């Protein structure tokens, strides 16, 4: 494969074995740190952050939080607002995988935060009811502390749960992401090194095959050139972010994600910047890039946005579960608000406009106002 053909920079990848006991210790350490950030008493939150993160940790969070540096910034702009918004928050992890990439120890986590939405978050109006917030993360651990984090929060899906939708309807189904069907995604047992290697290498072979797309119209012939059917289970589950939605099997995946995406970004591909994580852990693999995937927005009406001709960078992760031959499940957070901002669409601005127009009442206020003669105004 030539450099020009290797659009996703897969040829240079070298699997790095991991010492299994150390890998499990690292996973448990990250799980403990992140559980404290989600569930420690508010008075202990700062101490938990200083115990779990390096003082100058690089925190990369989905828009509109974006890049932060250091514990104080993380507390002020991420953790304290999130804890105020969901004061009874609990963290539920569906996947925890680990491995070595670029000589660093990386732990990837996927799951949901649950809680009653008590205070507005980043302008998203609180509902006072139960919500779930998807999280997908990559953490680099060094000497027992997190030094770098990439944190994807599906804030567009939280808007949806709050009753606001600032873009065109999703083509896929907007449902809560399911955990792995095998319920074995939190990997705290030693894994076979050869199996882990085969898993990540099979995923990267699929990535490389994506690069065979010619960049023209996504005709049946052009889609078949990518030979994707060889890499995926016939009934695979593809869990996309809010704005794209979830699909099952190839026909729905092509119709509701791949074709609209290729129409919008026909020249999409990786960049020399590379992924921040590429790991295999048993039957699971994780990749992720913060601006690694790049494209020109030249066609289609993806998200209801007309072509702009702008060059965009995408923040994205992929969590994969494989069997012996194929990819069976794929969870793929994309920072859709950040992508849309580059396409001229500010979803947070649109939401605020909807909020001002609609002037909604909190559920408890509505009940008090409309509860009949027995209600008491306060």
Features:
378 residues; alpha+beta; Nuclear Transport Factor 2, Chain: A; 6-stranded mixed sheet; 10 helices; 12 strands; globular; disordered C terminus
Q: What would you note in describing this structure?
A:
The protein is α+β, with helices and mostly antiparallel strands and 378 residues long. The chain has one domain: Nuclear Transport Factor 2, Chain: A (Roll), CATH 3.10.450. Helix content is 31%, strand content 28%. It is built from ten helices and twelve strands. It has helices spanning 20-39, 45-52, 71-85, 155-161, 193-210, 220-225, 249-264, 336-342, 347-358, 363-370, and strands spanning 53-61, 66-69, 90-101, 104-116, 130-142, 145-153, 232-239, 246-248, 277-281, 284-296, 311-322, 327-331. The strands form two sheets. Strands 2-1-6-5-4-3 form a six-stranded mixed sheet. Strand 1 (53-61) and strand 2 (66-69) form a beta hairpin. The protein is globular.
Domains (count): 1
**Measured distance between first and last alpha carbons:** 71 Å
Strand percentage, roughly? 25-35%
Which range best describes the helical content: under 10%, 10-25%, 25-40%, 40-55%, 55-70% or over 70%? 25-40%
Number of strands: 12
Structural class: alpha+beta
Rg (CA only) = 21 Å
Global geometry? globular
Element pattern in H and E: HHEEHEEEEHHHEEHEEEEHHH
- Biggest beta sheet summary: 6 strands, mixed
The CATH class turns out to be Alpha Beta
Question: Do you know the CATH topology?
Answer: Nuclear Transport Factor 2, Chain: A
Sheet with most strands: strand arrangement: 2-1-6-5-4-3
Mean pLDDT: 93
Kindly report the oligomeric state of this protein. Answer: single chain
Annotation field: number of helices: 10
Can you tell me the residue ranges where pLDDT is under 50 for at least 5 consecutive residues?
Answer: 372-378
């Amino acid at each position: 494969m030539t450099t020009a053909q290797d659009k996703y920079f897969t040829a240079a990848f070298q699997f790095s074995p991991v010492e299994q006991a150390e890998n499990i210790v690292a996973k448990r350490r990250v799980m403990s740190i992140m559980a404290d950030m989600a569930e420690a008493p508010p008075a202990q939150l700062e101490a938990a952050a200083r115990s779990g993160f390096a003082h100058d940790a690089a925190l990369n969070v989905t828009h509109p939080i974006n890049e932060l540096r250091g514990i104080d910034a993380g507390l002020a702009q991420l953790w304290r607002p999130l804890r105020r918004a969901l004061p009874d928050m609990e963290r539920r992890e569906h996947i925890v995988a680990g491995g070595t990439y670029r000589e660093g120890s990386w732990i990837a986590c996927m799951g949901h935060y649950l809680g009653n939405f008590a205070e507005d978050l980043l302008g998203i109006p609180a509902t006072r009811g139960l919500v779930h917030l998807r999280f997908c993360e990559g953490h680099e651990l060094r000497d027992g502390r997190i030094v770098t984090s990439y944190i994807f929060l599906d804030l567009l899906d939280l808007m949806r749960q709050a009753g606001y939708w600032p873009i065109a309807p999703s083509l896929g189904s907007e449902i809560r992401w399911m955990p792995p069907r095998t319920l074995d995604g939190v990997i705290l047992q030693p894994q076979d090194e050869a199996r882990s290697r085969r898993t990540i290498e099979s995923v990267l072979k699929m990535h490389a095959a994506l690069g065979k797309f010619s960049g023209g119209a996504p005709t049946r012939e052009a889609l078949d050139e990518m030979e994707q059917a060889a890499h995926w289970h016939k009934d695979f589950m593809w869990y996309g972010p809010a704005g794209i939605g979830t699909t099952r099997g190839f026909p729905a995946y092509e119709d509701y994600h791949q074709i609209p995406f290729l129409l919008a970004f026909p020249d999409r591909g990786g960049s020399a910047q590379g992924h921040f994580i590429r790991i295999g852990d048993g039957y699971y693999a994780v990749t992720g890039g913060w601006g690694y995937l790049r494209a020109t927005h030249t066609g289609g009406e993806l998200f209801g946005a007309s072509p702009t001709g702008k060059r965009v960078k995408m923040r994205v992760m992929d969590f994969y579960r494989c069997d012996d031959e194929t990819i069976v499940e794929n969870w793929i957070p994309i920072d859709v608000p950040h992508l849309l901002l580059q396409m001229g669409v500010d979803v947070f601005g649109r939401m605020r406009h909807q909020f001002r127009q609609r002037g909604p009442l909190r559920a408890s206020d509505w009940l008090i106002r409309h509860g009949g003669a027995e209600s008491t105004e306060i």
